Amino acid sequence: MALQLPTRKKYAVKDVMNDLKKIGPTPSQLSEIGSKLIYYEWSCCENLLGDDHPVTVNLSDTLQFMEHGYEELLVTGELWRIKDTPQGAINDFLRGRPKEFLEYTLDRSADYIRGLLESVADERRDEIKQYKKMESAVKREIKESPKDPEVWNKLRLLLWIVGKYSEASEAFKTAKSLGWSKETSAIVAL
Q: Which of 168, 186, 151 shows the shortest CA–CA distance to 78?
């Protein structure tokens, strides 16, 4: 069943973030929203409001989170507990942000934003199918090298991407118990 995003006449920052929580984006999808939407909005705000305005500052933080921070949280093992879902990571990022920022109406048209969000939702569905096919291959790797923390971490990332957060958490615990650390990890980006 296809994800139904609400139809809106305009989008505030919180509307985009709430729709993203419904999509459950991976770092690549969040980065796409950052580069195709948030960067534009940040540029407009920097010119109109100044670079020290709270909306501009928070859009800059949002862009950094979308293009780098979210992926870094996942790759470095910060998102490993069952509750560390895309929705949870977005909620953590938004926590404490000013109302003025969250309710700021974006400049791009509602049609553009909705089209971009729908495109990202479609990519997400396709990505889940693709990664589910890879799951059995990684599980075979684990049977061949059950004491390899890197393989267990690879499984954790794959399970997280397909939305199996409980299994991903268990795979991460195993990787850690076998000696995995972010300092020595072979995986530095997705």
A: 168
Question: Is 51 in a helix, a strand, or coil?
Answer: coil
Of the candidates 102, 106, 77, 89, the one whose C-alpha atom is nearest the C-alpha of residue 26 is 89
- Per the structure block, which two tokens stand in for 189? 């980006």
Which phi and psi (to 5°) does residue 77 adopt? 85, 15
Domain residue extents for the chain: 13-177
CB 98 within 8 A of CB 2: no
Backbone angles phi, psi at 157, to 5 degrees: -60, -45
Q: How far is 160 from 83, CA to CA, in rounded Å?
A: 11
Q: How far apart are CA 174 and CA 142, in angstroms?
A: 11
Do 56 and 42 contact (CB within 8 A), yes or no?
A: yes
pTM beyond 0.85, yes or no: yes
Along the chain (190 residues), what's the average pLDDT of each consecutive run of 10 residues?
Answer: 83 98 96 98 96 97 97 92 94 97 98 97 94 92 95 94 94 95 74
CA 180 from centroid of its chain's CA atoms: 22
Do the beta carbons of residue 142 and residue 151 sit within 8 Å? Answer: yes
